[in-house]
Amino acid sequence: MSKTTAPVCPSHLSNVVCALNSPTSHAACCYVNHTVSFFFFVCASRRQDEEGHVRGHHRTVAAFGCPLQRSPPGRPVLLGCRSPEKETFTCRWEPGDDGGLPTAHRLYYQRERLEGTHECPDYRSAGSNSCFFDKSHTSIWVDYYLTVVASNSLGNATSDIFKVDVMEIVKPDAPQHVTLTAEDRTDSPSLHVSWEHPPNVDAGSGWVTPEYRVRAGRRRQAGDAADWKEYKAGAQTHFTLYGVHPGAAFAVQVRCRLDHGSWSSWSDASYAEIPERIGRDGPFWTSLWGLSGFLFLAAVCVAVTKRKSVMQFLLPPVPGPKIRGLDFQLVKSARPEDFAGALLIRRDFPPAAARKDGAIEPLIVSDVDAGVQPRSGAVSAGFGWDNRQKNNGGERNATREDGDGRSSTRGGDADFETRAALESDYSRVKDVTADNIFLLDSADVPRAERLPEDRGEAANGKTLSFRKESVPSERRKKLPPARPPRAARVIDGGYVDAIPTSPLGETA
Amino acid sequence: CNRKSGYRCMSHVYMLDRDEVGRLPSQPILDDLSRCRVLSLANLFDRVIQHSARMHGISNDLHSEFEQYFVPSRNHVGRISRNCHTSNLLTPNGKENAQKIAVNLPLLPRGKDPLWHFHQITAHQHDLANFSSDKALEMSDMVHELRKGVEKVAEKMQTLGMISNSVGTLADFLPSESGGWRLMKDHELLYCFRRDSDKIKNYLKILKCRIVPEHGC
């Protein structure tokens, strides 16, 4: 048993509206876009088994003429107006339903300080469903009241009134001729962007004041850019991007607005690629490095071959010590026991020059009685060397050197002998007439451990005087007449001192 | 600054050391003779234009605030009945006409220019003052200052010999009486003022680019 169901319009057709003409028949009039109409007569049968499952369909379609569905138009809607340069403007609307009939749209306006109602001067220049007001029809700082009327044979429909003042609808076109120049400076490449004001904009008279913004982004492989960064460029028509990485590709866009109006759309992207840095690897730099390397090697060779003179120049030898009466080479090469001989060299010490000016003059004291071979001696106050060194050997030197005066414990007789020898070498100071007095502190004068008894007259050793002025002719080496061997007052192991007390004078 | 000191002091700064918020300094620089300094005409123009831009901004804010709280039926009411009193003056038919008006702007005699009218009106609109008292007061002050600024520019132009000492060329554009302003509603007043401040700003820019075009035109 077949059962017919209500007709269903084919689902694969869009914009189909079905109206059921007859409640009893299974027919439907379907309309597409209010103009195409066709008639469906559907006889559909559906077999169902006992469980209710559909077993099959049977459909018959026939087309007949249907009555046309017509109506007055729907109300259009004014979408908005825009002025790209504050001298002209364009308004657009959205038409409503046309009711299946050809419908015409007209724009009418009224204006402040203008009598009457006027129609749009130009429906075509800006495309369909638009109205273009040229310069002669555009006034600023006055209100326009716009309406759009849609009409067909069945009726009219009027949109709402749209009020507009040109000063509020300024939105320019995008800036044009955006050009990029990669600048390769010494260390930081930069990207210079320049552009021109949008077309038709009168930028120099003060009528509009453009303001620009630039944005730049790294270009990805797919061609689009991401990581946009926006920069303000003010009223200028150029901009420089710093800190761009060499080898990267950039996309740059510019937009503008006039007098704090709406921003334009972004210009079409311009692309630039920053070249890799080649400055340091060029042929000029390579030859420069080669030349400097060669010069360096040449300098090294010269330095090596002439190293002695170089060393002499850089590190001059330290001058050796220059002591008069001292043969430094002999000192260097002599054995320790020959030291004294190296030091006591010249017979004419002290030098004559020292005698002349009357400065420090060494005091030479000797005594002839000792019968010791005359020796040349270099004596000065405080100078601890004496002939004893030669006789006694190296270990004595050490003790003599520090001047502590302790006589060695070996060979006391030898000490005495040397002392006697010492006495014979020295002439007595007859008189000391100089004014200057050279004093030695008692602490500096160590006592000898063993002094012979007949030296009781040795000075107390507390103070010594040593006149620095020239001493008359007694200061010469001569062998004084024999006398008891106590004339020379030697105190404290070898220091020869002048004693100002009278015993010196009495022998004169 | 008096006449004896020459016109050196005529262009001294009168209004511009405002702080960021735009408040006037407590002590007008006008009275401080020690700070009298000479400004170039381009500099004067820049300052006056900045001032007019600020005035337009404030009037814009005031108007949109007003519309937020007191939303009139914008599309129906006041279609033709709106009549800003200043519509008769300073309203060009287009760009060229606007440039002509702009050039004549410094010639408006004192006491009869539209800004003087503004000042009178805004000073007396108590309702407006209640609505947004600080902004309204600021607007009133700014009108006053802007008028003085335009006068300064005119003086400087006269000393530079750019314009002759003519009087009253636009006097016939002015309304004979200003009582009609009182009848305007607050919303219309704000609307008209917003529009006229934009006019003033534009005229000053045109004038500047006509006279001293080398700076940012």
UniProtKB/TrEMBL annotation, chain B:
Compartment annotation: Secreted
GO molecular function, one term: hormone activity
Keywords assigned by UniProt, alphabetized: Disulfide bond, Hormone, Secreted
GO terms under biological process: positive regulation of receptor signaling pathway via JAK-STAT; response to nutrient levels
UniProt keyword Transport, yes or no: no
Keyword Cytoplasm: no
A Pfam family reported for this protein in Swiss-Prot or TrEMBL: Hormone_1
SUPFAM superfamilies in UniProt: 4-helical cytokines
A GO CC term attached to the entry: extracellular space
Superkingdom per UniProt: Eukaryota
Gene3D superfamilies: 1.20.1250.10
UniProt family annotation: Belongs to the somatotropin/prolactin family.
Protein name (Swiss-Prot/TrEMBL): Prolactin 2
Organism per entry: Hippocampus comes (Tiger tail seahorse)
